[in-house]
Amino acid sequence: MTAVSSLLSDEQRAVLALWTEVNASLSAYHKLVTYFGNAELAWCAKVEAWRQLGIHSTHLKRHEQPQQTQATIDAIQQALLDNKYGLLFADQSDYPPQLLDIYDPPPLLFYRGDKARLQQAQIAIVGSRKPTTHAQKITFDMAQYLAQAGYIITSGLAMGVDKRAHLGALAQVDTEYQGRTVGVMGTGIDVNYPNHHDKLFSQIIEQGGCIISELLPHTQPHKHTFPRRNRLVAGLSLATIVTEATIQSGSLITARLTSEQGKQVFAIPSHIDNSNAEGCHHLIREGATLIYHPQQVLEDINSQLGYQSHNYNSSDNAELNIEQANLSQSSHSINTDNISTTTIGQSPQSSLKSSSNAIVIPENLTQVYEQLDWHGQDLDALLITTNLTPPQLIGQLMELELLGVISVQGGRYLRV
User: Fold this and answer.
1) Does domain 363-415 have CATH number 1.10.10.10?
2) What pTM was estimated for this model as a whole?
3) What is the pLDDT of residue 188?
């Protein structure tokens, strides 16, 4: 077995020690490393040198107690040996490169699950902690569709929209597409929050997803830790979708950070009297892209990357690798092996129709789908032929539309 003392290199131990002594303060850490040149020199510096840099008194006190720092490092190394979690440093090849482009990248990341997910192209989905039933469904369907298209769905593991986004990404029948989600924690890697999300955490890890945190183990939730989490959600992703949010929602912070990082923000509209969607309407007013179908996200993202829009179906091998998709927004490359393409402007329906691998209609939607033709029927006719209630029928029609197998023209629903 690897000795605890030799598990990390000297520089990695110094990074971890410095991160511990400044209590994961980004400003203090970067100030010290910038001034001294690297973490080893900063950690070895006298406390007086730290004081002259204006480092906070609590950090100075920890720097004067190296035995406690050493104990913390040993405990973390033992946890690494016990496979309780993993640890990535910013100078390692498997550290997510897109985070190196943000203003204040974390020097390290703790993780659980499959770290390879961090290297794949991601789309963030965020929103209200108390979404409406309709928003929960839209979130789940959006995440499922985009995950099946080959993207990783990234969110913040919170209640409401975040949870539905993770679950939608995990809801793949084909095992090849399972586990396409990354959860960013606002706590230490060993602190599941909210507590009743233990099952969600386990499901993400067991199905091949990944959970990360820049915070030290045992760090409890605090109002200041969640904006930090939001910046990582934005930083990891090519774009951010807000499915429903109040005007005070923290997801608007994620949207703002996404925009500041030069990436696209998408928002889903709702009724004008839906106070739970005021945040989305505000974003649209401020320039976010209004969407009502996940295919629009795929087309816009691929258009921005300078490539043809791609339509992905359930049988496509659509692994998108960050190494191949440089996320600096200046040069992107997506692995398009075995992916059917459609030029920008071509409808998602026509692309799906021409695909050699047809989408399988879920059993619960078969009845409605079989009543449709290529000429179109209105809701009244479908209510009679299906014997469904209006809410049931509208819900199933929406699911079929999200699958891309039907469209609406002039109030009539038809196959494509």
Assistant:
1) yes
2) 0.75
3) 96
